[in-house]
Design goal:
- The chain has 227 residues and is α+β, with helices and mostly antiparallel strands.
- 38% of the residues lie in helices and 28% in strands.
- Strands 4-3-2-1-7-6-5 form a seven-stranded antiparallel beta sheet.
- It is elongated, with a radius of gyration of 44 Å.
Length: 227
């Protein structure tokens, strides 16, 4: 007769042997509805990436008068291939929700934020992160001073591209030049009339003199006949 301990060991070994002999069952069911792959448009297909750096973005809340975090992710400078406009685009991690989306203009000033060598702030007249045009005061913080310096350099290069190559600003400059030329032409003083007589005026005066001489001769003839 076996002891209780030996009986429990035997039962455990038999159960383990049975599990090893039984193959794992992996049921497979065909999907009822097939979902095709869909290409999601990001509106970045016609743009080229100038720089991409990981950072943390803040916005200044004018109601509470304090800085509030807007998101952490990769901030990018995207240059349009046709009109050479450049915009700042930043998406949050995981959700990929847009937290910054605005165009770069030549008059934006990149300021050092709170004396830090890793943070900057700048004012934006029109940001479309919330799908509505809003004026924002933004601040961005990078992981190290090298990334911060790279961001500042690339931002300045983007401003130069917009100022010299963007069709919106080059057209404005050409129109200003044309308007200045037009104004200068309108304000030109008229040239004084020349004192020299033209050929037509001379011939006209000679013809008038001949007519007057003919009239005088006719009057003399009439006077002789009357005598």
């Amino acid at each position: 007769m076996s002891s209780p301990i030996e009986e429990s060991v035997r039962r455990n070994s038999e159960s383990e042997a049975g599990e090893a002999e039984t193959p794992e069952h992996d049921p497979h069911y065909e999907p009822i509805v097939s979902l095709p792959l869909v290409d999601i448009q990001t509106n970045e297909e016609d743009e080229e990436e100038l720089v991409k750096i990981r950072a943390r973005l803040y916005r200044y809340d004018t109601r509470d008068h304090e800085w509030k975090e807007r998101g952490t992710g990769d901030v990018k400078l995207l240059r349009h291939k046709v009109n050479n406009s450049v915009r700042v685009v930043m998406r949050r991690d995981k959700t990929l929700k847009v937290c910054a989306n605005h165009f770069i203009t030549p008059d934006i000033r990149m300021n050092v934020h709170c004396g830090s060598d890793k943070a900057f702030n700048w004012s934006v007249f029109a940001d479309y992160a919330d799908e509505t045009c809003k004026q924002e005061l933004l601040a961005i913080k990078f992981g190290n001073p090298q990334n911060a310096e790279l961001w500042k350099t690339k931002f300045a290069e983007a401003q130069e591209i917009v100022r010299t190559k963007c069709s919106l600003y080059t057209q404005d400059q050409s129109s200003d030049d044309e308007s200045s030329i037009t104004r200068s032409e309108d304000t030109d003083t008229p040239e004084p009339k020349s004192a020299e007589r033209t050929d037509e005026e001379t011939k006209k005066e000679q013809g008038e003199n001949k007519d007057s001489d003919g009239v005088i001769l006719k009057l003399k003839e009439l006077k002789v006949e009357s005598e």
